[in-house]
């Protein structure tokens, strides 16, 4: 051939590695690569292949096989690791090259093939490292089924300014339980929170009141069913402790916070068993603190439950009772216990954004006593009260009007008199008789408290030393009955799905029924 004569183009049959009749999957191009959009005219010199792309230059295929549907994942489970797609080698051209160009292509293909082989052997080695006996059939312990979550409370990195609820939920899930109760009148469900490794569970008294043989069934977050017995109950504060009969060794008790540090507007998360839907998580904020709430006790003849509660807008419903209220770091700051429902509307009792939790400082004190002795003692002042107001120093304030002082009581010893209006205790405003009752019940016998009272138009500070109320004595420090909402909730009626709050005894001017439905 004349040296000046142009070499004719090579046909596909002349090429040693022709890909003319192959699909991209059958040729050198890796699966998922960018397929060529057309061939090269025979009269044109083939364009040399581009050098292999670097990691930052690779382009993921625009069209890939749709991923398989994601399996169901427990909402408590931590987020699954996101894997970066393995970078593919640069796609091969559908047309070969002559002379030096073809020899350049072969090393590129060889390098890609070698890299793929190395990756395959590495994968095999990694798999064998995790499975010493790949040929055997593995078995899963029933105790491990349903368990997930690696974080522990308090959760670092989750703050009130930027709560990470997914991590908090994962961290606290194992400390929340569902409680099933069978009574002479039927049964009900509620929630609880694990206090310690011994299997003590804190819940509401109205959840377990009337349980047959003082026995309930507890369901852990992973689905394990365990029997528990009632250690002690306190109708005055609507708190109770049950203990697992055979506590597993892998319990995850909750981390308890301090309710005194709770502020309005702080983010909160409620976890419980509303309407039998275990492991339900709802979030919201603290709407108010020291909100006086009164409701009927969990039994005939029991005290009216009066609590300066944490008010929240997180949804809680029948079955949430006894469950924990968490702060943004996963610490328990309250025990959800009741909700307010609109009376006379004919609808089901459910969340309207007005839920209430017993502060954990009070709950911790009562739970400690119940675990130690099965009973709880309460401080008392020794007065009967009603709502009212008083004017002094040019200011009118609401307060608790003392109607009667019991002889020999702490109030009598401090010279509290009938007609005094208590407007504050230790600097905290007293909005009425229920408010003062709740403040006193938060304290322990032997505590000193400073009462700010208005007497004859003048403001006085009176220091009183609280004492233990004798259980055989007539109930003291009870707010005036004329201001009480209806006393619904009888034993065996706790937290049943669709239960209506009772309407009997409801005052016409009171638009809410305080309902043990939280």
TrEMBL record:
One annotated GO molecular function: serine-type endopeptidase activity
Segments of skewed composition (Pro residues): 64-78
Transmembrane domains' residue ranges: none
Superkingdom, taxonomy of origin: Bacteria
Classification via InterPro entries: Chloro_Bact_Ser_Proteases, PDZ, PDZ_sf, Peptidase_S1_PA, Peptidase_S1_PA_chymotrypsin, Peptidase_S1C
SMART domains for the chain: PDZ
Bias type Basic and acidic residues, positions: 14-24
Database matches in Pfam families: PDZ_2, Trypsin_2
Domain PDZ, residue spans: 367-457
Keyword vocabulary terms for this entry: Hydrolase, Protease
Region called Disordered, residue ranges: 1-98, 128-163, 470-518
Compositionally biased region (Low complexity): 475-506
GO biological process: proteolysis
Protein family: Belongs to the peptidase S1C family.
Protein name (database record): PDZ domain-containing protein
The species this protein was found in: Cellulomonas fimi
């Amino acid at each position: 051939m004349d040296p000046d004569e142009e070499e004719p183009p090579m046909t596909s049959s002349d090429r040693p590695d022709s890909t003319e009749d192959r699909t991209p999957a059958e040729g050198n191009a890796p699966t998922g690569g960018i397929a060529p959009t057309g061939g090269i005219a025979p009269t044109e010199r083939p364009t040399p292949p581009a050098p292999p792309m670097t990691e930052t230059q690779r382009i993921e295929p625009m069209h890939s096989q749709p991923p398989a549907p994601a399996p169901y994942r427990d909402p408590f489970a931590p987020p699954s690791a996101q894997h970066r797609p393995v970078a593919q080698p640069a796609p091969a051209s559908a047309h070969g090259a002559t002379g030096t160009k073809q020899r350049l292509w072969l090393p590129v293909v060889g390098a890609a093939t070698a890299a793929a082989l190395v990756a395959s052997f590495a994968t095999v080695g990694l798999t064998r490292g995790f499975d010493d006996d790949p040929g055997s059939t593995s078995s899963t312990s029933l105790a491990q089924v349903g368990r997930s979550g690696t974080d522990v409370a308090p959760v670092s990195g989750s703050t009130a300014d930027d709560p990470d609820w997914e991590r908090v939920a994962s961290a606290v899930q194992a400390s929340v339980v569902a409680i099933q109760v069978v009574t002479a009148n039927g049964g009900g469900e509620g929630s609880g929170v694990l206090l310690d490794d011994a299997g003590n569970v804190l819940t509401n008294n109205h959840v377990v009141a009337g349980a047959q043989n003082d026995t309930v069934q507890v369901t852990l977050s992973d689905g394990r069913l365990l029997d528990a017995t009632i250690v002690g109950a306190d109708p005055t504060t609507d708190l109770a402790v049950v203990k697992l009969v055979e506590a597993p060794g892998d319990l995850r008790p909750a981390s308890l916070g301090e309710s005194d540090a709770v502020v309005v507007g702080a983010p909160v998360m409620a976890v419980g068993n509303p309407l039998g839907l275990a492991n339900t998580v709802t979030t919201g904020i603290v709407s108010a603190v020291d909100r006086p709430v009164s409701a009927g006790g969990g039994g005939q003849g029991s005290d009216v439950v009066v609590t300066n509660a944490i008010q929240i807008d997180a949804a809680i419903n029948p079955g949430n009772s006894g469950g924990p209220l968490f702060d943004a770091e996963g610490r328990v700051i309250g025990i959800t216990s009741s909700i307010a429902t609109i009376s006379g509307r004919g609808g089901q009792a459910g969340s309207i954004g007005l839920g209430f939790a017993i502060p954990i400082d009070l709950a911790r004190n009562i739970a400690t006593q119940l675990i130690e002795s099965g009973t709880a003692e309460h401080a008392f002042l020794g007065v009967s009260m009603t709502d009212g107001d008083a004017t002094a120093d040019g200011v009118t304030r609401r307060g608790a009007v003392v109607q009667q002082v019991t002889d020999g009581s702490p109030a009598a010893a401090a010279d509290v008199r009938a007609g005094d209006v208590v407007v504050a205790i230790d600097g905290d405003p007293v909005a009425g008789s229920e408010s003062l009752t709740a403040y006193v019940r938060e304290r322990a016998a032997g505590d000193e408290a400073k009462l700010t009272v208005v007497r004859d138009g003048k403001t006085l500070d009176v220091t009183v030393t609280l004492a233990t109320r004798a259980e055989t004595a007539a109930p003291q420090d009870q707010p005036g009955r004329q201001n009480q909402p209806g006393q619904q909730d009888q034993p065996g009626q706790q937290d049943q799905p669709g239960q209506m709050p009772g309407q009997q005894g409801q005052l016409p001017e009171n638009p809410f029924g305080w309902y043990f439905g939280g």
